[in-house]
Amino acid sequence: MLTLGIETSCDETGVALLENERIVSQRIASQESLHSLFGGVVPELASREHLRLLPLLLEAVEVESQISCNEVHNIAVARGPGLLGSLLVGLGMAKGCVLGTGANLVGVNHLIAHLLVSQLEERIKFPALGVLVSGGHTQIYMMHSCFDTRLLGRTLDDAMGEAFDKTAKLLNLPYPGGKYIDELAALSKPDKTMFPCPYLDNQNLDFSFSGLKTAMSNFLKKNNLSLSVLDPSPDIQTLARENPDLSKLCASFNWSMANTLYTKVKRALSREKEVQTLLVAGGVASNSCLRETMQQLAQELAVNLILPRRSLCTDNAVMIAYTGYLLAQQGYTHDLSLEGIPRGKPIPWDYNNSA
Ligand code: KG4
Ligand code: ZN
Questions:
Q1: For the chain, which domains are there?
Q2: Model-level pTM greater than 0.85?
């Protein structure tokens, strides 16, 4: 079964082709350099870039795979949550392909796709605890099967990636700055007392990262620390050499973020005793300190850990194609009335089940 995946929910444009679970071809185009000029994603520009890039990526996938859109059985498309204008570009392309080819249309929940794509590397043993850490979301799910998921906790304000990126902006690092904080952090040991681990003194599984960002802002003001010039493509070794406090600051921030996640995930695992797999996914799951901390936790509690390779953590179209394939296999498809769902709104389970 051939499934084409289309991802346009934020600032990455992606197209991937899967034959069953095998990646035949994939292309991803990042808009980072465009949005970094503005310190964050500009929705209107993102939509226009998706519109420009999507046909080029689709053609590149067709050429590389020697498989035309006409031969594809399913067209899977990220239908939300995301930027509505950006989602509409992907949906328009997907619906056009479906009209032209007669393939099945499958709308995919971008968040669940982040979690499920790890199965391309290792089967998830259910029940699993799914931890999704991305630029727009920080959520803990109880997963009884691929599509039977229950939300246990979520962020009340900033998502982890958002907190990383806003902190990087305070430091005058380019957008999206999570990876630069991570790279700088690798050059130093953390001071575990420098920043708080926020919102732990409660019994719930929710998060609140905005306080940590404010703590960083206050620290920078008090010590008059932040880079004087924003270099759009900084050399990390040079930055660290010229700014001796920077890597310690990043290592300490990184540690507070990872340790906050550790505490809440440990709490969730101690409550959900039947969990067999701890699954951590989303862009921030690329973070080295977070990966180490989750490995430590999994060892401590003797639970199987799945951490997808970094290229599957950040936004990509493989995860959309794979989730669409799983759905289509079970007969879950959409008709052309499929709608995009912006961030903050629940994603309905509105498939036409032909199985
Ligand atoms: O999952 P993703 O690619 O897009 C969303 O669905 O949001 O996640 C992007 C987020 C950004 O905030 C980015 O800064 C963050 O993931 N990120 C990182 C790292 N790599 C990407 N944050 C911390 N450390 C990293 N190594
Ligand atoms: Zn994402």
A1: 2-115+315-353 (3.30.420.40), 123-307 (3.30.420.40)
A2: yes
